[in-house]
Design a protein that fits this description.
By secondary structure, this protein is mostly helical. The chain contains five helices and two strands, in the order βαααααβ.
Length: about 70
């Protein structure tokens, strides 16, 4: 898969747990796990926007194309 999800890296930099982030974003911990492991087929822009808002980062810091 050429798109790499670096969500776990950003969460570690911000010292935020999966449970905290999922609660603040409004998604289930299971869905966050699917996203973190790169198994997600898609992500809503509204979800990506909320993640970036909470982690204070840009989408390019979470998603990487290789």
């Amino acid at each position: 898969m050429p798109i790499i999800v670096n969500l776990d890296v950003m969460m570690a930099k911000r010292k935020m747990s999966s449970n905290d982030l999922s609660a603040k974003v409004g998604i289930t911990p299971a869905n966050l796990s699917v996203l973190k492991t790169g198994k997600a087929k898609a992500i809503r822009f509204s979800t990506l926007e909320k993640i970036c808002e909470i982690l204070e980062c840009q989408p390019g810091e979470i998603l990487e194309y290789k």
